[in-house]
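stage 2 :: seqdesign
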């Protein structure tokens, strides 16, 4: 184990957080912080000086720009500049060097999401508001690139070996269940209204589909759980996120008390994990999340520890504390609905830092790389284009030893409707993931 001593005049929790992030990248380094200049001078091992001026000859000097310790209200958005082959973040008024610690913190702590009031129609922080998207690097894991470069610099300068810790498993799949069924098990009024609407608007194929399902002549397209029984995915790589409540027009799931739903839940927990899909209006409502979590736990008889926000409606400083209060300690919402890529600049899971209370929390954030509906609804990609984009992102995650998380929906198996021609996409992707995961061992 290589003990790497970092000198800083300030023992700030933000710096300690960044050092814990660095610790997670390598198995052979322990980053220790000191504010004693004398101790730092006497230390003969690998040394990093994070201050305004160099101290000794055998050190790696990272100039402290002061950005890391700014009050939230005083944070100035840094500028992106290209250095060699990667993009780096610099303070707006400084060009004297790359403040790695400040840059990593800015993106992982999601500082920009506290500062900006630019939201889309669902009151979400959209990709267009992101510094990464505006600089054309949303689909590059810039934080990982910076840290890999930093680790390589440490190895060369101090003649040490710092092998990268590879995240295991390399990939996982999240399946959102917003509606268990497209047509089945709905009230007679809803069935009649839907049938009349389809017929009146000339949607005769959909009308015929309804009639066949109502008569038991064909399977409801959202009743797609049989697709997961035959695909090569381990239980710890598969999570079903269940919408268990909500009263908005975006919350349309069936009652968890319905016998076929209970049977489906009992089956799902044998092939994957069960997570909560907090409803549309839950992102600032601790009590609502609590009620929905308890309802799901009662229905499937498992303890819920993970969640992904419905519609990706995530309000960092309100949603995350609400999850923690409800003992939900793994979140899969760190992604954009309208663009694939790396919302926090990383493909590696990390712990959320609470900026309001200045502390690292125990909420584990697993970044969302991409989602099926992003390609269909927002980017209007055809299946081949979507598959190529997903594979490109997967290969970048593999390069950085991170974790690739893909979100799909049970409704995305409706191949006679909007998902026509997507029949083989998910299966082909999983085969690719498994083949290329093995080559990484």
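stage 2 :: out
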């Amino acid at each position: 184990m290589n003990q790497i001593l970092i000198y800083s005049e300030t023992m700030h929790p933000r710096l300690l957080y960044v050092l814990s992030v660095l610790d997670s990248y390598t198995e052979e380094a322990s980053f220790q912080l000191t504010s004693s200049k004398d101790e730092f001078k006497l230390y003969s091992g690998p040394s990093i000086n994070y201050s305004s001026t160099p101290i000794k000859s055998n050190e790696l000097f990272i100039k402290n720009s002061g950005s890391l310790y700014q009050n939230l209200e005083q944070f100035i958005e840094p500028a992106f500049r290209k250095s060699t082959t990667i993009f780096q973040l610099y303070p707006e008024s400084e060009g004297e060097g790359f403040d790695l610690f400040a840059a990593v913190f800015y993106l992982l702590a999601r500082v920009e999401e506290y500062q900006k009031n630019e939201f889309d129609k669902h009151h979400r922080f959209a990709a267009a508001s992101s510094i990464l998207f505006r600089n054309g690097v949303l689909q590059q894991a810039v934080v990982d690139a910076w840290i890999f470069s930093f680790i390589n610099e440490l190895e060369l300068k101090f003649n040490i070996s710092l092998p990268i810790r590879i995240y295991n498993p390399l990939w996982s799949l999240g399946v959102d269940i917003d509606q268990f069924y497209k047509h089945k098990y709905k009230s007679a009024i809803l069935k009649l209204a839907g049938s009349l609407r389809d017929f009146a608007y000339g949607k005769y194929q959909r009308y015929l589909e309804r009639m066949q399902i109502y008569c038991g002549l064909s399977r409801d397209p959202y009743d797609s759980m049989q697709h997961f029984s035959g695909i090569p995915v381990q239980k710890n790589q598969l999570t079903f996120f269940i919408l268990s409540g909500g009263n908005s027009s975006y919350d349309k799931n069936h009652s968890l008390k319905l016998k076929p739903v209970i049977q489906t839940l009992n089956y799902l927990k044998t092939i994957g994990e069960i997570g909560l899909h907090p409803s549309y209006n839950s992102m600032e409502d601790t009590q609502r999340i609590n009620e929905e979590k308890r309802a799901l736990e009662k229905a499937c008889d498992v303890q819920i520890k993970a969640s992904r926000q419905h519609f990706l409606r995530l309000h960092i400083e309100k949603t995350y504390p609400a999850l923690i209060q409800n003992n939900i300690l793994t979140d899969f919402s760190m992604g954009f609905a309208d663009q694939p890529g790396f919302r926090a600049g990383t493909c590696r899971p990390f712990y959320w830092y609470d900026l309001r209370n200045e502390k690292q929390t125990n909420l584990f954030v697993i970044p969302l790389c991409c989602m099926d509906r992003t390609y269909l609804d927002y980017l209007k990609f055809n299946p081949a284009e979507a598959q190529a984009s997903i594979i490109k992102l997967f290969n970048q995650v593999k390069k950085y030893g991170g974790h690739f998380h893909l979100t799909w929906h049970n409704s995305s198996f409706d191949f006679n409707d909007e998902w026509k021609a997507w029949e083989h996409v998910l299966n082909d992707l999983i085969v690719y993931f498994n083949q290329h995961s093995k080559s990484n061992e």
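stage 3 :: structure notes
- The mean pLDDT is 92.
- The first helix runs from residue 13 to 23.
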